[in-house]
Request: fold
Amino acid sequence: MGDFAVLLTIFVLAIFVGFEVITKVSPILHTPLMSGSNAISGITLIGAILSAGSQKTQVTMILGLAAVIFATINVVGGFVVTHRMLRKFRRKEE
Amino acid sequence: MISPAIVNLIYLLSATLFIMGLKGLSHPKSAVRGNLLGAIGMFLAVIVTLVDKQIITYDLIIIGILTGSIIGTVFALTIKMTAMPQMVGLFNGLGGGASLLVAGAVLLEAALLQKGPGLQFTIATCASGLIGAVTLTGSFIAFGKLQGLVTEKPVRYKGEQIVKVLLLLASIYVSVLIVLNPHITMYYWILTGIAGLLGIFLVLAIGGADMPIVIALLNSYSGLAAAATGFVLSNYVLIIAGSLVGASGIILTKIMCKAMNRSLANVLFGGVGAVLEKADESDIYEGKITSTSAEEVAMLLESSRKVAFVPGYGMAVAHAQGMVRALSEELEKNGVEVSFGIHPVAGRMPGHMNVLLAEENVPYDKLLELDIINPRFKDMDVVIVLGANDVVNPVARKENNPISGMPILNVDQAGTVIVIKRSLSPGFAGISNPLFAADNTLMFFGDGRAKMEELVKAYKEL
Reply:
């Protein structure tokens, strides 16, 4: 199997896993699910780190730096705000 | 240095944690743990990337991560819960923007090294730039609309669809140019510029009440942009995490569309809320509206056993949720059974009302979804509708109107319906609401918070 076919296989399977995992989400949690998954989409930070640290040219490093800042805000802000929200969700006698 | 095999195994561990995290996030009991698992997965992925042999210098990475962490944490800890929709929108946009920048940097690198990049690389770069740019600008416009910086009304004009189609065609055309000439990196920035405009026009055309759908859709896009970047870098964890988020966003979008009985295409390109049909309000309302006072409502509540609140965006605008909680506590002290009916699209983002009420320490087992509370309304003595309109409009059960077939909360079946509202003005759908004129409806006109305050006071004094 060529490289592209492997990546495409992973992509398609992950989409199906995503559908299966989320399908029965409780409506109470729509917002935290969104902000939590949003934080996970900040995974692009991995790519940003590779660009910012590659030292190939100044331009790519600056693009990488901007990407690292954006993605880190997304990741850190997303997980923290989700945690803050979720701590408020309580049952009656808890 | 660790071998690529180990790096990929750690990425696999991260991906597993993301899946378990998302699974946890879909149930109230496991949600906090789910979020933590996701964060641990991210932490592992970042650490293992930092020791990757491709990295030569750490200066910029450290500066970037520190800056981003500080900004992100400060935002996340200081933001008011009422401003949560904007915040989610903003974070979303930054994620899309980061994907766009990474793809751009990698393309530039390839051009400088005079590598002949393969088709997968160039097509993925275009997808990343296109989706990333739409997510970035679209989210910023959504942020502007929610923050009140951009008009909440749908901006529609003649030839609007043509503008969007032309922008999309232009993006595809430039993408083809990039695939054919990957060494001319200027094309990439032209592509992101055009796609950015497309994002602006797409979201400008969408009105306030459709925001839950747009926010969910942009959430999905930010994931897909990350997945596309994964194809650019041939990186498994980006592809997996990105497509998980893409899938979860699509599911949320579908749930939101279903709750409005509209297709996604209709939300994006349709005209709801654009042309307000001049409904003949005097016909429906004249002589049939009964106004009420805090004392009268308090007396009604005094003799009630079961009471429900139905909040809408108006509650968020008036910041009335604290008073709602106060009244519900007073009622419960007197043995009244209190519940909350939450429509899936009430508010400006999926789950908006739940977050506001949870912030006020309303236990989540009292927040009931549509299917659960609807059969119970007929047993309710009093239902208090606060700042909601279209989601309780019985016209939805009839044919040929903008909200036909939309699932609504059947509050009209309750003994008495109290509607707290500033005026009889129509909701987002632009149609009048026969509920206000119903025999069992009492209108309690005024600002949501002020009226709830009066009500709490009147009820306590009984």
In short: Chain A touches chain B through 82 residues (CB under 8 Å). Residues 27-86 of chain A form one domain. The mean pLDDT of chain A is 90. The longest helix of chain A spans residues 58-86.
